[in-house]
Amino acid sequence: MKRFATANWKGTGKEGKGTTSTQSGVLKDTQYSYLSRFEEGIGTNPEELIAAAHADCFTMKLSFVLNAAGFTADNIDTRCTIELDNGAITNSHLEVKATIPGIDAAKFEEAVNDAKVNCPISKLLNTNITLEASLA
What we know:
Blueprint: E1 5-10, E2 17-22, E3 30-33, H1 34-38, H2 46-68, E4 75-85, E5 88-99, H3 105-118, H4 120-124, E6 128-135
Parallel strand pairs: 5-6
Antiparallel strand pairs: 1-2, 2-3, 4-5
Helix pairs in contact: 2-3
């Protein structure tokens, strides 16, 4: 399987503007710029998109891990915060809260740690990945 996205940029790094689109069309000519990346400008940015990808991938992987262990989540909410420091992504922090009938804390911790290590985006990122998890 292959997926793609495209980016277009016009102008300098600081004053220029860009757009990004995804194969699915969910993002179509979505704007990004220096302001949306490093200040509070309108549009998306690479770190926000990485955070979304990591949160999505981890959450889906956790669902698969739970199912393999005989559990089905009623709900899993994940927030991912990407830290950019001196031009490098230095951390991806996952915060997950889940409602999973019948699971105990030890089994839940085992499942979230498995998902953290084995989701494809975790494997892709060459950075420190931290995690906080709680059951509802």
